[in-house]
Amino acid sequence: MDLTAIKAEARKAAFARRKKAYQSAGPAQSAHLSEILAGYRGVSLAGYMPIRTEISPLPAMAEAAAHGPVGVPVIQGEAMPLEFSRWEPGCALRDGPFGAKVPLDDDFFEPEIVIVPLVAFDARGGRLGYGGGFYDRTLERLRARRATLAIGFAFDAQEAGELPLEPTDQPLDMMVTESRIIEFHR
């Protein structure tokens, strides 16, 4: 079986686990994320607008927006890094690609912290995304310019024993779930 097929199987299993966790816990489980972000008040960060059964970072993002710039990803095109547009609670939104909302008016900036959505994660900071490579390209670009903290955010149930990773997959620095905070030391 080739790596593409292995990744597809891993995603399918992780989506099923995430759906079950979402149905049990609901989307708003951001207390630990708020706790982490409180230590970075005023530092520019990017979160995401949750889609489907993703855990929601919105309460933590709203708290952070009171202290500094917060953005959300805007897809620029296939195989391109993401750009992050300034977001605040209640701002006007429009439909973006893949069903995620984005700010009506683009006001791009580069965040120092990126809250990363994911399909699955492992105990070493590996992340399996949706397969487009958007976050990998984006984190690679941001990290080439300055230190950038990548915080994965997901349900505990999305943890996998081992993930099919490639050299281009960008590792997470930290993982936050509804019940714990895991720091990865590199």
TrEMBL record:
The reaction(s) this protein catalyses: (6S)-5-formyl-5,6,7,8-tetrahydrofolate + ATP = (6R)-5,10-methenyltetrahydrofolate + ADP + phosphate
Entries under SUPFAM superfamilies matching the protein: NagB/RpiA/CoA transferase-like
Statement: the UniProt record of this protein carries the keyword Repressor: no
UniProt keyword list: ATP-binding, Ligase, Magnesium, Metal-binding, Nucleotide-binding
Enzyme Commission numbers on file: 6.3.3.2
Superkingdom of this protein's organism: Bacteria
Gene Ontology molecular-function annotations: 5-formyltetrahydrofolate cyclo-ligase activity; ATP binding; metal ion binding
Cofactor(s) the protein requires to work: Mg(2+)
Residues annotated as binding ATP: K7, A8, E9, A10, R11, R127, L128, G129, Y130, G131, G132, G133, F134, Y135
BP GO annotations: folic acid-containing compound biosynthetic process; tetrahydrofolate interconversion
Binding locations of substrate: M49, E54
InterPro entries named among the record's database cross-references: FTHF_cligase, FTHF_cligase-like_sf, NagB/RpiA_transferase-like
Family: Belongs to the 5-formyltetrahydrofolate cyclo-ligase family.
UniProt protein name: 5-formyltetrahydrofolate cyclo-ligase
Source organism per UniProt: Shimia isoporae
